[in-house]
């Protein structure tokens, strides 16, 4: 499938996950997207899946304490100034679970976009706002680059007998990582300018024509969004 | 009229106290191959950037004189407008790659310069085939080795069919065969080629003319023959050296590092299988072999940075490893603090190590303010300061000019008597100068290294 119809399907699934009222629909979308993400190489998918899981769990755990809903109390805690009585009801847990699933579905849709779609082809297909699309593409590659740089710093430090332990040790690497990524951006900007980026009269390499499957995917994406709006 | 005309160019980077180029005048004719030599910081890269229009448009600074390329004054014509007629290949391919897929990367320049859409893919595939990497068209750029990536960058500039090709140390990450193949491809281009290199033998074999820069001035501009005579009389370190056959000198010292039958794989791809290596106190071992054969992996296993999947590793004493990327030694805000990291903050030791590598006087500078050659030496000082029993240096001559290379060889030999030293290198001349014996990693030799 071409990347544009695939991106449209992923976006429509994210919209449906946000709009759907039934939890099983949201759960089904999240499960389907998780299966899709598992097709990506293990080393690449770990960061995205772990990030999605942690943020969803955070929403699930926090949500019952900041909402007041339902009468079936499962746990009653102390009264806290400003927040009031801390209790957890089964209704709050159900709502928290749905919200966490929504976040997971949206996160997994983004993960599938980054991990499975050919961003280069997506960029080539973009007929407008090419600079913005290019910026998004470069930003997407920033995470693995930073990961590689961080591993390189740690290895070079270990190579001279300095162990990097704990949060403090790793925090020390933040500043050189940021400085390094700024230096890299400057070098990349120079190389891009030397290759004519920004010059008027740019052309576009032809993209392959859409297949029947691509057209079906686009139609499906439109239908999913319409269903999300009217259902 | 020539392709390039430079009249009395003087250029200083912003905040620089001395100009990087002083009163440079130069003509280059179409089809000429010009080798630009000179020590680190002599202005070679700045000259190439001036020819691409990046100086002054991208870097700013004070620009006096006139540079004309293909009849266009670079003060009025920016690098993006010169692109296509002028193409640049820089030292580090990692910093040039924009896209995630090889074919898209090569198409990027063609699209920017307004190539007709129906011509783009044929030219992309033509350039990839010319660079010998047609099979990589659909590969992800992050999965390529440094050598493959540099060939992708070369294909990107070849696809543009430029009138002037500028190569700024393009072979620093390549093994000798890869470097020769890349330069052969570049000089076959119909246009003029200007190549700056720290390994001068290869461009000197292929050029029509030689420029030698020192402190921003051209001290030699001559055809190849007379230039070789001048180099022989005045700068013999830059003459092509004979790659010595690596010997097998016996050293009696205690064995400090021994790897037996080791194997290592990245994901499912085996890199090393059945490799053995030993180093004794007082011995310098050169580890050579083509790109991607596993030299760095073996060096990291020897240093204890990677754990072998099979076989045994024995070390007596402390091992230290110098990474081939000097950008990894820029963690602190001051040069002396960076070096002191490995010795628990002992600034006295750090200053002595800096003095030893020729960086005395720069102790309080920010490491990122150093030139690339100075960064290489900072990395070396950061490792040497720890005075390890086992010293492992991964490509220590990358980006180092010939006079510094001779100093580095002397420095390694000086400390060799009380430690075991393993030097991973593509530079066979350097290996011959510094090593007691060589171990060549290759498909055939893997089991016997």
- Work out the number of β strands of chain A: 2
Query: What is the CATH architecture descriptor of the largest domain in chain B?
Result: 3-Layer(aba) Sandwich
The CATH superfamily of the largest domain in chain B appears as P-loop containing nucleotide triphosphate hydrolases
Assembly form of the protein: heterodimer
Structural class of chain B: alpha/beta
Number of domains of chain B: 2
Largest sheet of chain A: 2 strands, antiparallel
Task: Name the chain pair whose interface involves the most residues.
Answer: A-B, 49 and 63 residues
CATH topology of the largest domain in chain B: Rossmann fold
Number of strands of chain B: 18
Give the DSSP E fraction of chain A (strand runs of 2 or more residues).
5-15%
- Helicity range of the residues of chain A? over 70%
Structure description:
The complex is a heterodimer of chains A (231) and B (449). Chain A has helices at residues 3-19, 23-37, 42-66, 90-116, 119-125, 130-159, 166-171, 174-194, 212-230, and strands spanning 73-80, 84-89. Chain A has 231 residues and is mainly alpha-helical. In chain A, helix 3 packs antiparallel against helix 4 (90-116). Chain A starts with a helix and ends with a helix. By secondary structure, chain B is α/β, with parallel strands linked by helices. Chain B has 2 domains: 4-238, Rossmann fold (3-Layer(aba) Sandwich); 255-448, P-loop containing nucleotide triphosphate hydrolases (Rossmann fold, 3-Layer(aba) Sandwich). In chain B, helix 4 (102-112) runs parallel beside helix 6 and helix 12 (347-356) packs across helix 13. The relative contact order of chain B is 0.12. The chains are: A mainly alpha (231), B alpha/beta (449).
